[in-house]
Amino acid sequence: MLFGGRAGHSPAACAAGTVGRVTGLFVTLEGIDRSGKTTQARLLCDALGAEALAIREPGGTAVGERVRDLLKDPSLTFGPHAEALLFAAARAELCRRVIRPALAEGRVVVCDRFVDSSLAYQGEARGLGVDDVREINAWATEGLLPDLTIYLAVHPAAARARAGRNDRIESEGAALQEAVARAYDRLAESEPGRWRRIDADRPAEDVHADVVAAVEAARASAAAL
Ligand code: ATM
What we know:
alpha/beta; Rossmann fold
């Protein structure tokens, strides 16, 4: 969604008599480490077929992948401001070069993390402040927001028990993940129109069924616009 309208949505195009919307759908998945986002993004894209475009953050462009390597490198330390700006820089490239063009082609863009990750990790957990992080990201993304954000809610202790390798941020432990989980809870409650909270402490196929239902509902409401 752009500030003041849906992603790339053109009133003139709607008036041309198509089914009411001619642009794509921008879906993001959010959650703490090991909440199952990557699995659910893959299952959703498999279900959507060729119209889906799967991307992950940080990354998805040549510059973004280099920034990802920097951000995940356990031998580096960053101040919170530099960390937030690097995430925003990778995101700026992704929006301009990948997401906006795909939405303009009518595709369903499925993004594993987006601005809300920065609000939760850098804004809340790192203490930079959600409003400041939102502002730099609004500038970096030129105002692009998802049509639907799926929050895969898991209990941090249950997520810790799932297997996986740790990168620089993931290695910081339980306190960070708990702060991030609380931040997601607040973000989801503050914007119920865009967020859909799904209990992800369940088998992947049950979670997937709810994810598909949420995307179908978002498409139906976009088509009604
Ligand atoms: P993945 O777990 O999705 O690969 O993300 C990498 C890490 O980057 C993840 N760490 N943990 N736990 C979340 C973190 N991250 C941020 O801190 N801010 C952001 O804006 C994004 C996109 C990711």
